[in-house]
Specification:
alpha/beta; five-stranded parallel sheet; nine-stranded mixed sheet
């Protein structure tokens, strides 16, 4: 038991070490839409259920969900991807904002945001409707804007990390977000990134990238081996053929289905020619070949189907086949690490030492596992970027994927959930949310000693609203610890007038401290937070507004102390003054509706 506890603490240390790690995610972003319905009858027109919609959920999908998982696990995530100027794109932006992802997506008018809409009844997926055509290529201007966004986001992350080279995650699901010029730019600029992770349906498109880690599914790995020119080796005995369906290229996780053996012959057909008499095609599959094949011994590949020897017994499975080809996969991809994911069967991971590592998962309904691969990719990338040993990275990646599949929906693994699964405290400190100035000094010193970056902001926060919450979530994403300084009641009156604040500082502070994105709240009496800034010496000082950082009064002080200044735009039409004015306006309107000669009691009840 003591050994297990020590191992969990060791893993938790790695999770702590990747806090604030800068990660740039680029690729196919999409919107996942879940529609939950009920059905208690069939329609008269056809034997089909009549559905009544009860609930609708939208979530980030594809590369966007990988970015959400990076942010949720504690990394500093920036997403660069083409997104349509449409309703689905607006929803995707909201999902990214809520997750604290730095949204550097590029609007592409006329090119729709890819959407996967799932209709469920009784927690069972009945149908899925996909929109967004991979043939909708980016126009030259769109490609140029995407390349500009990539370069700017890379430098932005580097600056925010104090000059540290960021990590790159490429998510290529064949939906057109990564055309040849973008792939070429990433290959040419490989040296700008410390760690590079690649998740691609067609790994052959990424020759030359030299990624740190690739995470193909079993079918994607098999397809790559087939295109690399494997040839069938002779073997005897009956075969079980697994067919790789058409259309998987743009469909997320690969699927494998039982089917006909290569050459159109069933495995149990006694008239079938021996494998050594059936020379399957070698190299790139032709348009008529919908399958990719491993031969009976599981050691050679052709381009027409997946075949394993059933006489070898139950021990021959996808994991065994994947383990036997890890070295070739590393050679063909140029990756240091190959992690072949096996859906609910876990994964097989191999590195430079040539030692395969097997991880396992718990089988769950398919509707529970959507996006679990994104959680796996995010955790694996963060762990390797934090210089964790490969066995540790593989362990944490599998754990992140496994603990997200408890319910229907798009999977997101949060740092606190991962720490809880390791039986570790979920907070970075035992200090309370509301603190005094003296206690704040000790808290900041403790976090600095642990190598964490401190973000500081201040304000009245009189009537907490959506704009405040979004602003604070974005501020928290800029570092590891967010401290919010709140003006005292006297300070607010001097700044805003005698009728403010509406809420006393005790209430304002308690509400702020209850937000998950806020670590600590401190009250200050002065009209300026300069004294607190001197004491905290924040790595990042944040103010709300659309003006440049140079116009922030505290900017010279922050920079003199070695910090940087950031301004974040507010949510349009969301402000404390506007809310208070609306309340007063409604109150005036209600009073005007009461006739002057009505009894006092009636007027009192009306108000």
């Amino acid at each position: 038991m003591a050994g297990a506890a020590a191992e969990q603490r060791r893993l938790a240390t790695v999770v702590e070490s990747w806090l604030g790690r800068p990660v740039l995610i680029v690729g196919d972003a999409m919107l996942d839409e879940w529609r939950f319905a009920e059905s208690d009858r069939l329609c008269r027109e056809a034997p089909a259920p009549v559905l009544t919609l009860r609930r609708r959920i939208s979530a980030a999908g594809g590369a966007a969900n990988t970015a959400v998982n990076v942010a949720a696990l504690g990394g500093r995530a920036v997403l660069v991807a083409p997104v349509g100027a449409d309703v689905a794109g607006d929803e995707l932006h909201d999902c990214l904002d809520r997750a604290g992802v730095w949204d550097r997506t590029v609007n592409q008018p006329g090119r729709p945001t890819p959407v996967k809409r799932r209709m469920l009844a009784g927690n069972q997926i009945l149908l899925r409707e996909d929109s967004g055509d991979p043939d909708d290529a980016l126009d030259p201007e769109g490609v140029d804007r995407l390349l500009t966004a990539l370069s700017c986001a890379t430098e932005e992350l580097r600056a925010a990390a104090g000059g540290e080279a960021p990590t790159l995650v490429v998510c290529d699901y064949g939906l057109g977000a990564l055309p040849a010029p973008v792939r070429a730019w990433l290959v040419e600029n490989r040296e700008r990134y410390a760690t590079v992770a690649l998740d691609a349906h067609d790994l052959a498109d990424w020759r030359g990238l030299a990624p740190t880690v690739v995470t193909p599914s079993f079918a994607e790995a098999t397809r790559l081996l087939a295109r690399a020119g494997g040839r069938a080796r002779p073997t005897g005995g009956p075969d079980l053929h697994l067919e790789h369906p058409d259309g998987d290229r743009v469909d997320g996780p690969s699927e494998m289905t039982a089917g006909v053996a290569p050459g159109g012959v069933r495995a149990d057909d006694a008239t079938a020619p021996a494998l050594d008499d059936r020379q399957g095609p070698v190299g790139e599959p032709t348009p008529g070949e919908s399958r990719v094949a491993l031969t009976g011994d599981g050691l050679s590949v052709t381009g027409t189907g997946v075949t394993v020897n059933t006489q070898a017994g139950e021990g021959v499975d996808r994991a065994v086949l994947a383990e036997s080809r890890l070295a070739e996969l590393r050679a063909h991809t140029g990756a240091d690490v190959v992690a072949v994911t096996l859906d609910t069967e876990g994964a097989v991971v191999g590195g430079v030492d040539g030692e395969p590592r097997r991880s396992h998962s718990t089988p769950v309904p398919a509707s529970h596992a959507v996006g679990a691969g994104d959680a796996y990719l995010a955790a694996m990338t963060l762990a390797l970027a934090a210089d964790a040993p490969l066995p540790t990275a593989a362990q944490l990646a599998q754990l992140a994927a496994t603990i997200t599949v408890s319910d229907t929906g798009t999977c997101v693994c949060r740092r606190d959930d991962l720490l809880a699964a390791l039986d570790q405290p979920t907070g970075t400190t035992s200090h309370p949310g509301l603190v005094g100035g003296d206690e704040l000094d000790a808290i900041v010193a403790e976090h600095r000693e642990a190598g964490r970056s401190v973000v500081f902001t201040n304000g009245c926060f009189d009537v907490l609203h959506r704009g405040h919450v979004r602003y604070l979530e974005q501020a928290r994403a800029l570092g590891d610890l967010l401290i919010v300084a709140v003006n005292s009641d006297g300070s607010v009156r001097r700044l805003k007038g005698p009728d403010r604040p509406v809420n006393p500082v005790e209430d304002r502070g308690a509400l702020l401290a209850a937000l998950s994105c806020v670590d600590h709240v401190v009250v200050f009496e002065e009209d300026s937070p300069a004294a607190l800034i001197e004491a905290v010496r924040p790595d990042v000082y944040v103010k709300g507004g659309d003006y440049p950082p140079e116009l922030v009064p505290e900017a010279p002080l922050v920079r003199r102390l070695g910090g940087q200044v950031r301004t974040l735009g507010y949510v349009p039409d969301r402000s404390t003054s506007a809310i208070i004015e609306r309340i007063r306006s409604h109150s005036r309107d209600a009073s005007a509706q009461v006739a002057p000669d009505e009894p006092l009691r009636a007027r009192t009840q009306a108000s």
